[in-house]
Each structure stands twice: as C-alpha cells, then as structure tokens.
Amino acid sequence: MRGLLSPSLMCADVLNLQSELEALDSLGVSYIHLDFMDNKFVPNITFDPTLIRSVKGVLKNMRRDIHIMAYEPQQYFDSMDIGEGDIVAVHYEACDDLRAVIGEIRSRGASPFVAISPDTAPSVLLDYFDIIDGVLCMTVYPGFAGRPIVEGSFEKLAEIRKLIDENKSGLLLEVDGHVSWDFCKKMRECGADIFVAGSSSIYQKGLKLDESIKRMNELVQ
Questions:
Q1: Dihedral sign computed on CA atoms, order 176, 37, 67, 5
Q2: Cβ(39)–Cβ(9) below 8 Å
Q3: Are 216 and 24 in contact (CB under 8 A)?
Q4: CA dihedral sign of residues 34, 13, 187, 217
Q5: How crowded is residue 191: how many other Cβ atoms within 10 Å of its Cβ?
Q6: What is the pLDDT of residue 206?
C-alpha cells in the first residue's frame, strides 16, 4: 500500500482550524491527527475532547486519527464521540487493562491502535496483535511538537515492521515524531504506513499547504 498522511492539527494555525481542516480535506489527505493530552501522562495539554468531537462534523473525506496520551483513556471516549471510521491510539504505558480499553474502542466501531513511547520495547505489542488494527510508534518523547528524533528510532520501526510481518500481516504501522523531509523516506523504508506530519515538514513556515502535501506524498510512496 502507498504511504498515507495524517497531518497533526496541533501544528496548524490554531486561529483558523476549520479552514485548515477544510483545506486538508480537499487535498485528498487520508487522516487528520488529533492529539489529546491530560497533563499527567505527558506534561502538556492540547485539544479539549469537545473540540475533537467537533472536528467530526467538519470532515467529508478524511478520517479522525485520535492519539490519546492520557491515563484511563476510555473516560474520554464519549466526549470525543468515538465511533465508526475513527482510528484511536491509546498508550500501552497508560492503561491498567489495555485489552479492555481496546475492546471498548472496537465495540464503538473504531479501529484500535496501540501506541508505544520511545523507551518501550516493541515485544510488548505481541500480546495485542490479535485484537488491534495497528501500532503507533513514537519516535520522539511525547508531549510537545518539534522535539528531536530519539536515537534508534529507525531500528525500532524496522523491528516493529518485522514483528507485524511475522505475526499479524495486515496491521498498519504509524510513525509519530519528527517526520521531517529528511527522515520520512527512511521511515517508509523501515516499514511505516501512516505518517504524522507536523512542524518539521508540512507545517514549516513559508510553505504552502498544497505544495507541502504534494511533496510529502511523493516522499512516502
């Protein structure tokens, strides 16, 4: 399959979010990446759950790609209106009963992904391959945009890809963190399918959105 883009809304123009969403939707982008942080699991707060819910009413073609960086993520599912067509990534490190949380996502018609932070070993994913649709691999420490890529990230992506291919072919591998012009092609070569693009690529100052989307699509094919 071709590489798919998931632009990060937290890197967009916060004063013009609706127009940004509509522009991306018209450019054939597959997903819109929506980060939620509780200021406990990670030291930051981003979009309110009600804003993530509101995004659903604006989209025509894109799917919501919701990345919940919070403890007990299931407590936010109702307020975000999690449902059919959504990707929902929850962190291995943030759930007491990850299988139950994944089951709740599935019961709502959404696609469950497990997210792992840079210091988490890929081997933990093996226990969940039977009930998930994908993996989100963090290549920066979560919490803020613009952080440097963590050493060993390419090797980790390749390791996850190998685990998927050997154990549950068909799972998607999403990469989130410093998906830059310089790194995205290498990430693709390491097996990434979905690319969370933000401040190090499509949202760089001085670039037109349509041109940056076109350039990124070409690099991740």
A1: negative
A2: no
A3: no
A4: positive
A5: 18
A6: 85
